[in-house]
Amino acid sequence: MESNRRRFLASLAAAPMFVPRKAWGANDRLTYGVIATGGRGRYLNRKFQELGAQCVALCDVYEPYLELAKQDSPQAKTYVDYNDLLAQPGIDAVILAGPDHHHCPMLLAALKARKDVYAEKPLSYSLQESRIMVEAVRSSDRIVQIGMQRRSAPVIHYAKKLIDEGVLGRITMVKPQWHWNTSRPLNNSPLPGKLDWDRFLGPAPKRALEPMRFRSWRVFKDYAGGNMTDQGTHLMDVVQWFTNSGPPISAVCQGFVAKMEGAEHPDVFSAVFEFKDFLATWTLDYCNAYQNGWSITFMGDQGTMLLDEEGFKIWAEPWHKNPEPIFVARAPVPIEAHIQNFFDSIRTRKQPSCTVEIAANAVAGPHLANIALYEGRKVKLAEVQPT
Q1: Three-class SS of residue 206?
Q2: Alpha-carbon torsion, ordered 108, 109, 113, 118, to 10 deg
Q3: Could you tell me if 6 and 29 are in contact, meaning their C-beta atoms sit under 8 angstroms apart?
Q4: How far apart are CA 307 and CA 286, in angstroms?
Q5: For residue 166, what are the contacts with CB-CB under 8 A and spacing of at least 6?
Q6: Cross-strand pairs, 35
Q7: Which residues contact 185 (CB under 8 A, 6 or more apart)?
């Protein structure tokens, strides 16, 4: 056992680590715009600038968000309509960080305007939109990176390498989970500042303004797939990537709204996905912080891997005789590596680490689970795939 430990630790010494670097020189600096400047859009804007790109345009339907974003990019022009931003000369790329129901129309508009795109996950609002988006990107010559940063993280790649080498043997069960004690009743108090509600609704059904629908759009069916598709896209992608599988064959799901009063999507759920050679149980509880954050447990007949936001550990089988891990790797999942990969892809015109095809496969299972949840039945992927 000690020889195994030394062998794994020696392997870790050769594992690649990400070192941030400036991507653009003074004469070839990437210029970009941010469409949707909520919390995630502003975060990405700061990271893009830290890596040397230049923000020249900002767009949001909510004026206070634009004002906050302007503090990070004071020279950028501001817009309410993203089509006006896309028409601005001199923009190389755009960040798309809007609600899920805007992902498809925003991407199609950006491709039509011939912009390279960094788009937030999940790829799509529905399985049908996934197909439309993949076809649109492949009919263009644009670089499109989807914001699933684990695809560019060196520590995740190293964990994948060890699984490919057979350290776990045959994998029969995978357990992705996400625990946060963050659920609260939704805030429906009046919104400060100016909001263009009609533009926020976009292709969604028209209705009177309810502030909680804007503040917490992710938990409403008209605008998103809930945390099933949001967090699930990240974790199910790693499950499928590490097991060399496509999307699941079928899904069943149960869930409920426990503490997030006013929400439509659940803050507690459990989905079971059927794959050809293994099962995956995807669970989320936003009412409990035990094992806080995300993790994925890969269970094989020769070992177990626990992957989380701090790195990963591996235990040999049988666990009850070998309770100490034979391998421990501690490293973060840096968003900078994923953005850098996007910058490098723009320069080389080679495909980025998270293509639209990868993202479509990643969100397919969560979309399937939502259908199973709301229809109260087992759902097979072939039943809902567009012809």
Answers
A1: coil
A2: -70
A3: no
A4: 20
A5: 302
A6: 59, 96
A7: 259, 260, 261, 262
Give the strands of the sheet with 293-300, arranged side by side.
Answer: 327-330, 311-316, 303-308, 293-300, 171-179, 279-285, 268-274, 250-256, 379-380
Q: Which amino acid is at 352?
A: P
> Whole-angstrom Cα distance, residue 162 to residue 160?
5
> Helix, strand, coil proportions of the chain in percent (round to 5)?
40, 20, 40
**Which amino acid, one-letter code, is at 74?**
P
Q: Are 280 and 272 in contact (CB under 8 A)?
A: yes
Place of tokens 């600096």: 29
Tokens standing for 66?
A: 């634009």
- What is residue 25's predicted lDDT score, i.e. its pLDDT? 52
Tell me how far apart the alpha carbons of residues 313 and 158 are, in angstroms, rounded to a whole number: 12
Burial 210-221 (b: 16+ CB within 10 A, else e): ebbbbbbbbbbe
Q: What are phi and psi of 146, to 5 degrees?
A: -95, 140
77-79/54-59 β-pairing: parallel
Q: Which domains does the chain have, with CATH numbers?
A: 17-150 (3.40.50.720), 152-338+363-384 (3.30.360.10)
What is the chain's pLDDT, residue by residue, as a tens digit (387 residues)? 444 444 444 344 444 455 555 555 545 789 999 999 999 999 999 999 999 999 999 999 999 999 999 999 999 999 999 999 999 999 999 999 999 999 999 999 999 999 999 999 999 999 999 999 999 999 999 999 999 999 999 999 999 999 999 999 999 999 999 999 999 999 999 999 999 999 999 999 999 999 999 999 999 999 999 999 999 999 999 999 999 999 999 999 999 999 999 999 999 999 999 999 999 999 999 999 999 999 999 999 999 999 999 999 999 999 999 899 999 999 999 999 999 999 999 999 999 999 999 999 999 999 999 999 999 999 999 887 654
CB within 8 Å of 89: residues ≥ 6 apart: none
Listed in sequence order, the residues at least 6 apart from 252 whose beta carbon sits closer than 8 Å to its beta carbon are 271, 272, 369, 372, 377, 378, 379
3-class SS string, 284-352: EECECCCCCEEEEEEEECCEEEEEECCEEEEEECCHHHCCCCCEEEECCCCHHHHHHHHHHHHHHCCCC
